[in-house]
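Data card: per-record layout.
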Amino acid sequence: MCGIVGAVSQRNVVPVLVQGLERLEYRGYDSCGVAVYAMDGQPGLRRARSTSRVAELGEQIASTQLQGTLGIAHTRWATHGAPAVHNAHPHFSHGTGVGASLDGGKPGRVALVHNGIIENHDELRNALKAKGYEFMSQTDTEVIAHLVDSLYDGDLLEAVKAAVKQLHGAYAIAVFCKDEPHRLVGARAGSPLILGVGKDGQEHFLASDAMALAGVTDQIVYLEEGDVVDMQLGKYWLLDKAHKPLSAEARPVKTVHAHSGAAELGPYRHYMQKEIFEQPRAIADTLEGVEGIVPELFEAQMNHAPGQNAARVFQQIDSVLILACGTSYYSGCTAKYWLESIAKIPTQVEVASEYRYRESVPNPNTLVVTISQSGETADTLAALRHAKSLGMQHTLTICNVATSAMVRECSLAYVTRAGVEIGVASTKAFTTQLAGLFLLTLALAQAKDRLTDAEEQRHLKAMRHLPAALQAVLALEPQIMSWADDFAKRENALFLGRGLHYPIALEGALKLKEITYIHAEAYAAGELKHGPLALVTSEMPVVTVAPNDALLEKLKSNMHEVRARGGVLYVLADADTHIESSEGLHVIRMPEHYGELSPLLHVVPLQLLSYHTALARGTDVDKPRNLAKSVTVE
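The structure for this 634-residue chain is written out next.
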């Protein structure tokens, strides 16, 4: 959600800024823009902004020949103010305040981009209006631009330091001033920001993540909470949250290979389709090197805390608390079944955005597990910090980005290897999270002496077979496409599952909502008669996840309830469930029953159903309306 790119160099940085925005398109956005200090013709601030895609912005830039050696760029996901050009970043200072233009239609001296939300923007806005500043947008971001301008007295770093002291909320900012045309300042609190060191240290970059700088530099410094960075030609300085200078050892330069090729579409029509079909490889990569179940699997983290080795933690804990949002939350709900049935450990799963806003009973012997694709999910990070503030210090994350804030802030981690996921609707990140959570279940079961050697080998054998099993499920695509033709005509759908597969039904409904805009709900099938059955008609398709497990006969009874009311069933059944297609009952047979790991297979047809239904309805598959990939604001 929202992307920042900035650069200071001796060359024209506009191509770098535009390429960076292209790399950040996966986050989701509804407007974009670039601002530079232009040195040709009339020196000063110039910008281009668009409510279309980055490609259209690039055409604008080419037609106006926008160039500069200092610049910032942004993709915006609207929070304050509608998606409109006047609300798009970058923002300039305006008005009759000190240093601002007397003509509100012309820019003042400060240009700024911002990720996050400023909670006290109304208070600051009123104070700045009283000083003569004019507001051209409804955004909270413009407040920061005017605030920096109002505090500027010849030193941009000092102005930014003074400004951030007045900000309440979350922010990552990049700002420059036309009076210092070779200087770029950044700051972060609650939103991610990185520094990129260019060739020979003669140019420097800012970005939301390393992906934006792929192909430009692989020398990355991760800014910590409250850090401020001052970048000039050939040098940079870092300050901590107390604005004290930081040494190179405190914020070391890391070599990060964020391969741009991972974002190439290749032969597929959409990234979502590509990522669905990448799942066998993603699972294989995630499990690469796993020869046995050992606690050390969960010590692949950046900042190892003394005394927090996995073996010791796993023996000490007596419960698990899972914190996550969206699709990651559903992976946690699935893991609850595994953790309690296999590891025999009481497990609670909380929606991260709700957890810290209620009274809870902390247990210092709880393992707090966060799940996040990006590792920068604002609600999940805040929930993690809240749990730690309550005295729960045993923390572990399942995450797809090894250098993310989530990995840095947790004592232990399992880094999945799904690769870059561009489509807003998560697919391969979800299944690799499930793989990591199943390994965690086995590791905890082993630590508690609840896993025999024979059971461990059986589970490992099943996991190694997952890529081949997934390939067989993907071969069902033609049958699923025929279902999609029916679904494309509907505006509502129900999804049913029982036990371990209830969270998979929830995930299937979420996928359909996200990219087709069909209203979909999921229920534990036993809940049908407690209300949802009132919705069932011949116009309401009912998707049922029906593995051959202990709850199959109960599920068949629920299916009869649907048929008796004229409902149309779409059933994903294992081969030996003896459920046959008939009028009003459509069955796709899964290639094999997969026991405890069945959720990883049954979710794939639901992903394909959503994808092909979206194709039939003509929606924007990879960038669905109103949604963003990485939710970095609360």
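Known properties of this structure: Confidence is low (pLDDT under 50) at residues 96-105. The CA atoms of residues 306 and 411 lie 9 Å apart.

See the next section for split statistics.
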